[in-house]
Amino acid sequence: MPWLTTLATEEEPPVGDATVPVPLSVLDLATVGSGTTAGAALRTSVELARLAEARGFHRFWVAEHHSMPGVASSSPAVILAHLAAYTERIRLGSGGVMLPNHAPLAIAEQFGTLEALAPGRVDLGLGRAPGTDGATAAALRRSDRLRETADDFPQQLAELTRFLDDDFPDGHPYARIHAVPGPVQGSVPGGVQSADRPAVWLLGSSGFSARLAGELGLPFAFAHHFSAVNTVPALDLYRESFRPSAVLAEPYALIGVSAFAADEEKDAYRQVLTGALGMLRLRTGRPGLTPSPEEAAAYDFSPVERDFVDSWLANVAYGTPDAVRAHLDGLLKRTGADELMLTANAHTPAARLRSYELIADVYGLPARA
């Protein structure tokens, strides 16, 4: 079963030594900065994916968010298909697709298509939150699905898995429905159409998905970058709940981390402050484009706003490359994570690309050919 090779590949950088303790990966939100466009942000995503592949990052995921002007990643499957045309080896995936927003069959078809386009390197990361506000979530769903909630996630996941494996039992209403491309079994002339399917991950920022991922024996990705207080408890719950499966013999946990490196600490701070101000506006119902470093530096934070920003930045690994590495290495010791996925929510594309180059350098990842 080729889709079971979700974690280690021949393209993965060497791990377990003093240089690269665990695989390093990238989470991209296609950040749209003030003074620029979504098209420019998506072109930067292509540059970043190519850089990540050239420097030996393990996987490149894109997130699903809606009704957020500063985030252009509303359609992960579309972006991933585009990135597949510009890359050759790096794993591509969703971090994640918000399952309640979509019909399971549609997801199975989209990611089956991606697997056909980029065989053996597609990850389907699934989340149970809508990735947006309630009104937008309602606009995304069919009228007969509006009553579904995050608590229905296990049933939705089971249905999606059946479509991916093409193994609904006889007599099931969907037994004669096939997600194409995919492993069409049934009585279709020619037999099995494809033996591959995307690797399924569960994503979360609390204990619900951690426990479910453990019980199902699936790899788990935790959003440390916006729920740091829950990271260790969720990973502990995942490991305690883990049951070996056909996918994994042992638990495998990835954590998403905000990280930004620059040649000088003050330059890194200027960039991460833009992301913090953007998050402050989002949390207070004022979503917009990611502000420029000049706008963020000039912003007059109230005491309450400054507390929020300071708390947010406390969980961001930023500064010189050595300072970023020290933060990330400390996080690895505290969490025992098997992989780090780095995200840089900042305004300036060139600075974001430079940050990943510097982090690759400090970890001794391969130089660009």
How does this model look, in words?
This protein is of the alpha/beta class. It has one domain (2-362): Alpha-Beta Barrel (TIM Barrel), CATH 3.20.20. It has twelve helices and nine strands. It has helices at 38-55, 76-86, 104-117, 134-140, 153-165, 207-216, 231-241, 265-283, 293-298, 303-313, 321-335, 349-362; strands spanning 24-28, 59-62, 91-98, 122-127, 199-204, 220-222, 253-261, 317-319, 339-343. It has an eight-stranded parallel beta barrel with strand order 1-2-3-4-5-6-7-9, surrounded by eight helices. Helix 11 (321-335) crosses helix 12 (349-362). Mean pLDDT is 89; it is low at 1-6 and 8-18.
Features:
alpha/beta; TIM Barrel; eight-stranded parallel β-barrel; single chain; 369 residues; 40% helix; disordered N terminus; 9 strands
Can you summarize this structure?
This protein is an alpha/beta fold and 369 residues long. The protein contains twelve helices and nine strands. α3 crosses α5 and α11 (321-335) crosses α12 (349-362).
Which word captures the global form? globular
What is the CATH superfamily?
Answer: Luciferase-like domain
Low-confidence stretches: 1-6, 8-18
Count of strand segments: 9
The CATH topology comes to TIM Barrel
Q: CATH architecture, please?
A: Alpha-Beta Barrel
InterPro entries: Bact_Lucif_Oxidored (IPR050766), CmoO-like (IPR019949), Luciferase-like_dom (IPR011251), Luciferase-like_sf (IPR036661)
Family: To bacterial alkanal monooxygenase alpha and beta chains.
GO molecular function: oxidoreductase activity, acting on paired donors, with incorporation or reduction of molecular oxygen
Domain Luciferase-like: 24-338
